[in-house]
Structures are given as structure tokens and as C-alpha cells.
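pinging the channel bc i need a second pair of eyes. not urgent but kinda urgent?? the chain im working w is below, pasted from the shared doc
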Amino acid sequence: MRGPGSDEMPFLDHLEELRWRIIWSLVAVVVGTVIGWFLVNSLDVLGILIAPIQPLLGEDGKLAYLSPTDPFFITLRLALTVGVLLALPVIIYQVWIFLSPALLPREKKAIVPALYFGLFLFLLGVTAAYFVVLPIMFQFFAQFQQASLEQNIVIGAYLSVVVRTLMAFGIAFELPVVILVLAILGIVDTGKLRKGRRWALVLITIGASLVTPGDILTTFFLMMPLLVLYELGILLARMVERKAARRAAEEDAADAEDEKEWAGV
């Protein structure tokens, strides 16, 4: 990496810079968690997360807890989750500051819009999971063994399923951005991506199985958009290649003009 006004930063300076980036990221998480504590209590975040299963809860519409300390630790857990989400822009900014000196100007110019696109895709994935996947998933599993089993859902286990599903869809929807950034850096190309479709299917299946709560239905719901997003990533990589080809052609044309001018002299 290159620092301003210098040729190349020494290794120890890199470590010192990395340490401060981590410290600022942790500070952002702590501040975000404090803010998250008030948001969880004032905006009824728990009620928002319970809403997808609300129609199946009966008259009282409440979930159970097993320990007297559960309400406090559930609130703390939600505050930490909200805090990490609030701190995410700061964390991404710190990572960007640390890595950007190693990038070329054209790479920086291309990657910054990709980060905003990634934020949109993350929100899109969370929204799809909340409004579509979770209600269908809960309705599907509630149909089994109704004659023999009584529903008594515990808040801790429920939140684990909900948060894990929301985060899984949000992160998984970043696939086109990952492919786009790798294409910008020249690590992958459309030829490799097209040839690797079979491997992509295998990896998507394994990844969806690992990050989802462990049921086939949710895994299937995650696999389908991932396959579409993989194809979107190929299209984006193709756009990057075409732009790079046009830039190379313009540079060659400019070099040819310069050679003609020198030859004329």
C-alpha cells in the first residue's frame, strides 16, 4: 500500500494502521450497541421480528421464555445485532481506507458504486426473507403433527431462526457484488464463471445448507435467488470486460496517434 506523500509504508506502519482501523470499528460497534439498546426498547424491534409468526401464535400472540434472565439477555442480544448493523458503514469505511491505497484509481472508481449496490442487495435480501420466506416457512412447519403436539415457541430459539435467516439472505444477496469486484480486480472473467456453473451450483447448495437454519425449505428458498444472482454476476463481469476492452482500444488508438505524430516529426 502507498501512503500519501511517501513511496511505500513499512510493514510495522501497516500493522499500526490496521490496529487503529480495528479499534475504530470496535468503537463504532460499542456506540451502535448503546444506540441499539434504546432503539430496541423504543421501536419494539422484538415485536417487529415476531410479526412473521404472529398469525400462528393464537389469542395472546406472545412467545415463551424459560429463564428469568431471558428478557434482559434477549434485549442485549438484539441491541448488539442492531449495533453491528449501525456500525457496518463505519466498518466498511475503515476497511476501505486500509485497502484503497493498494488499488488503482480506475479500480477505486469502479468499486465504490459496487459497495452502494451491495448495500441495496443486502436490504433486498433481508426484505425478501422477512416478508416472503419467513411467513411461508412458519406456515409450512406449523402444519405438521398438530393433533399430537402443542405449540409453545421459546423466544431464544425463535430469534436464532429469524436472525440467522435474515442475515443469511442479506449476505447471500451480495454474490453479484463479490463477482463484480473480483472481475474489476481481474481475478475472474466471464469464461471462468460460465465454465464454473456446475461448481457454483454445488457451492451454492452447500453454502445455503450451512447458513440457513437447517431445513430444506429455507435452503431451497435461498438457492433459487442465488442461482439468479450468479447469472447477474456474470452479466456484470461481462460489462466490466467490455469497458476494459474499450479503454484498451482507446489507449491503443492514442498510442498510434502519438507514433504518427513522432513519425511526422
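so Residues 106-265 form one domain. and The radius of gyration is 24 Å. — does that match what u expected or am i reading it wrong
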